[in-house]
Amino acid sequence: MNIPPDDKNTRLLGSSSLGWRDRLARFPTSLVILLTLLSLGGFVVLYSAVGGAENNGYVWRQVARFGVGLALMLIIALFGSEKIYRRYAYLLYTIALLLLIVVFLTGSIGMGARRWLALGFLNLQPSELMKVALVLALARYFHDRAIPMGIGLVHLWIPMVMIILPTALIVKQPDLGTSILLITVGMVVVVAAGLKWRLFFGVLFLIGASLPLGWNMMHDYQRRRILTLFSPEKDPLGAGYHIIQSKIAIGSGGISGKGFMAGSQSQLNFLPERHTDFIFSVLAEEWGLIGGLLLLSLYCMIVLRTLIIANMASDRFGFLTVVGLTALFSFQVLVNMGMVIGLLPVVGIPLPMISYGGSSMLTLMIAMGLMAHVSIHSKQHGGTI
């Protein structure tokens, strides 16, 4: 993957330099098709997960969110300017950080966590906004600095502060999953920007050395979730219940599954959080290994398409933005699937475009819009594919 040069004098393609036909011709249509197929599959699984027609309001709300998200994606991709996104990256990061502070002070509490701002018509989750804001802010930081010899310690402390501040606020909500996701995505952007390998391994060592401190800072239920990963059978009706029921659902699906709305674990309410965090278990039980592989194939095609966009980016900001947002998307997939099959602790990460939820859906569609924008204004464009 070729990293575009960090040259402030490089003339960028803005939306004003491309006509309507050019922008539409350059739009990555395949990305919209893949996201639509993914969401359609999600609507079907969600319909089953919530019990069918009696609760189809969940499905219609999710359809509406996808429609709004698709509109946002098109607006960001076709009407925006990379110079504007770059110029206001720090402002967006600051707004997201301030919203996290407001959540910490006065946020709404749900399921034992203070994560939302009740706006009447919408429960806003600022941690979702911070996922995109952090990527844009880090991309702006490294775009503005020419570091031909590689990123050293002197260049690293500001990005580390940018990552640690929102992470600390999200840990206090508490939301361990999003905290880990922010650190991971932030480090991916730093590495992609040219972090020296010696420093990279040094950072990994420091993270490893700080794990005992992180363990002591965790809530009791978070420690139980991690310990339960290794022996869920020790507490089958408590901390291990989610993982045990999820494994039963996935295993009982076999190769071809039990059929639409025929999964015993989900339809008989054994499987908890089946419309949100554990929706993949519903899919695997009803559609089997074949359905799971089809879903994974769609995810892989989306990630491959976004990596192609990153490789064609016209500048360093676009490249780092797409790499960071691709990492955000793909790590959410890996963590959620790893969680429901018992390979990772239960940390509450939704399955992208499939799990029920408004903030997550809109955040991902905004991210896709930014990546589509980079594709439209790329230096070497190969059409709408």
Which descriptors would you attach to this protein?
mainly alpha; 2 domains
Provide structural commentary.
With 385 residues, this protein is mainly alpha-helical. It has two domains: 16-79 and 219-380, no CATH class; 88-218. The chain is built from 16 helices and three strands. The chain has helices at 20-26, 29-49, 57-79, 82-87, 89-106, 126-143, 157-171, 176-192, 197-209, 211-217, 220-230, 241-253, 264-267, 279-311, 316-340, 358-376, and strands at residues 108-110, 113-118, 123-124. It has a three-stranded antiparallel β-sheet, covered by helices on one side. A hairpin with a 2-residue loop joins β1 and β2. α8 runs antiparallel to α15 (316-340) and α15 runs antiparallel to α16.
Oligomer: single chain
Please report which band the strand proportion falls in: under 5%, 5-15%, 15-25%, 25-35%, 35-45% or over 45%: under 5%
The number of strands is 3
| Spatial strand arrangement across the major sheet | 1-2-3
| Spatial shape | globular
End-to-end Cα distance: 18 Å
Helical segment count: 16
Number of domains as seen in the coordinates: 2
Helix content: 55-70%
What class would the helix/strand composition place it in? mainly alpha
Radius of gyration: 21 Å
What is the N-to-C succession of helices and strands? HHHHHEEEHHHHHHHHHHH
Any low-confidence stretches, pLDDT <50, length ≥5? 7-16
Average pLDDT figure: 85
Profile the largest sheet.
Answer: 3 strands, antiparallel
